[in-house]
Amino acid sequence: METLKRASIENPVLLYTLEGNVQGLQSIFEDPAEVHHEQCSKLLLEEDLLGRSCLFLACILGRTEIVRTLLKYGANINQQTTRGYLPLHCAAAWGHLEVLKTLVELGSDIMLLNFRGEKACDVAARYNKTDCADFLLWAGK
């Protein structure tokens, strides 16, 4: 837990993602007077040891507006972790249908596979997120 606290202090994009603070995120990217403005793109794309950026966290937490905001400022919608997971896989696993709809609307590739050879709809089905699996099957047609 202490590591997460330290990381969020060092990376305000992560902190605002955790808090669900859309205005804070916008401020970092749009206000040249903001302390972290010059390094905002680097902070946005910063990854943990597994290759997950703040976008993955927003998808896991079900923060649709944060997802939209991160993508607006340059997050990679089709970024894959070292094991091939996309933000889409994370949203599917956690059952966040609105986040899934947003990712599909904004161009996430629903056909990409993780290391197990699973599409996001397969991950949703594995975790019994039926509404998510049904939506992804429909979107893939």
From TrEMBL:
PROSITE patterns: ANK_REP_REGION, ANK_REPEAT. InterPro entries: Ankyrin_rpt, Ankyrin_rpt-contain_sf, Dendritic_Spine_Reg/Scaffold. It comes from the Eukaryota. Coiled coil: none annotated. Transmembrane segments: none annotated. ANK repeats lie at residues 50-82, 83-115. Keywords: ANK repeat, Repeat. Pfam families: Ank_2 (PF12796). This is Ankyrin repeat domain-containing protein 45. It comes from Staurois parvus.
